[in-house]
Design brief:
alpha/beta; Rossmann fold; 18% strand; globular; binds UDP-4-deoxy-4-formamido-beta-L-arabinopyranose
């Protein structure tokens, strides 16, 4: 049975991907330092899948730990989620972001090379497209970043390209996520950010649970149908399945390639609020405030390349995303503000 190392596997997308890998019959090993995740997630992945797996607590920047993991296990491929991902925080603390995101990736790649493991799925982001050159966004669109978080993703994509050029034995899938939302139907894993959420859906969930008084809508003067920002929201379970398809592909093919993981549909903030209210039978009070610096008006994917090469497409709709997000938040052991 193929053994897959999942860095950051206790995190939001990592945990959902771990579930899909286990259900598909892979053996997995998770390494996570719980910087932005919780220990109970490890147990919840086991509960959902009724499967066991090895877990190492620690930092992917710790070469000694990574060498231990690779020397104790025959690892066939790695999926690299571990990294900081808050845009606003990255603007305030750029050195922390460059150090952590790039150092952890280099440490992983050097260790993989040393142990002759050359198959990698990398968690990138649609943020590398900056203000999109055209819509819908395809993988050949211009790359331009507007914040240190996005820059770490872009630089790591460049590192991976240079690595492949130096050694064509590598198999690398670079996945550019659009806006992941939602939670597993079990309500045992989901998005559970520490503190006040930066992202729209977890913020709305806190308003729905009366942990926050109202939503601030960042601008309604964009050139969109209702003036509010438009994004491509994708169910985290669809995203996780995209990682499974990417892994299956790289296990059989050498090369490096880039894939947009989105639905191809854009929804505005107001559309999202209205849909959330409808499917969950709640009211979300909001205020229109100034635009958030660095925000773009519209961003949604052309997902046809992932369909063509990975035989993957998103299947779950917005209502399922928003219902599952709210259902997860009502789970008793969920962290409150
Ligand atoms: C969505 C829309 C906001 C919060 C970011 C990262 C991206 C990825 C996903 C990591 C925008 C509006 C938001 C709020 C609002 N992260 N909004 N009030 O900015 O598209 O993408 O998260 O990979 O890399 O850039 O997501 O959820 O923050 O914003 O009005 O309280 O909701 O203006 O139009 P974003 P978001």
């Amino acid at each position: 049975m193929k053994k897959i190392l999942v860095t950051g596997g206790a995190g939001y997308i990592g945990s959902h991907t771990a579930v899909e890998l286990l259900n598909a019959g892979y053996e997995i090993i998770i390494v996570d330092n719980f910087y932005n995740s919780k220990p109970e997630t490890i147990e919840n992945i086991k509960k959902i899948t009724n499967k066991d797996f090895l877990f190492y607590e620690g930092d992917v920047c710790d070469k000694k730990l990574l060498r231990k993991i690779f020397s104790e296990n025959e690892i066939d491929a790695a999926i690299h989620f571990a990294g900081f991902k808050a845009v606003g925080e990255s603007v305030a603390k750029p050195l922390m972001y460059y150090r952590n995101n790039i150092d952890s990736t280099l440490t992983l790649l050097e260790t993989m090379q040393e142990f002759n493991c050359q198959k990698l799925v990398f968690s990138s982001s649609a943020t590398v497209y900056g203000d999109p050159e055209r819509l819908p966004i395809d993988e050949k669109c211009r790359l331009s970043v507007t914040n240190p978080y996005g820059a770490t993703k872009l630089y790591i994509e460049g590192i991976l390209k240079d690595l492949y050029i130096s050694d064509n034995e590598w198999s690398i899938a670079i996945l550019r996520y659009f806006n992941p939302v939602g939670a597993h139907e079990s309500r045992l894993i989901g998005e559970d950010p520490n503190g006040i959420p930066n992202n729209l859906v977890p913020y709305i969930v806190k308003v729905a649970n009366k942990e926050l008084p109202y939503l601030n809508i960042f601008g309604n003067d964009y050139n969109t149908k209702d003036g509010t920002g438009v994004r491509d929201y994708i169910h985290v379970v669809d995203l996780a399945k995209g990682h499974l398809n990417s892994l299956n592909y790289i296990l059989d093919h050498k090369g490096i390639d880039y894939y947009n993981l989105g639905t191809g549909k854009g929804y505005s903030v107001l559309e999202l609020v209205k849909t959330f209210e409808k499917v969950n039978n709640v009211t979300i009070p909001y205020k229109i405030v100034d635009r958030r610096p660095g925000d773009i008006a519209v961003c949604y994917a052309n997902p046809s390349y992932a369909k063509e090469k990975l035989n993957w497409e998103a299947k779950l709709g917005l209502e399922s995303m928003l219902k599952s997000s709210y259902n997860f938040s009502k789970n008793t052991n969920h962290k409150k503000l």
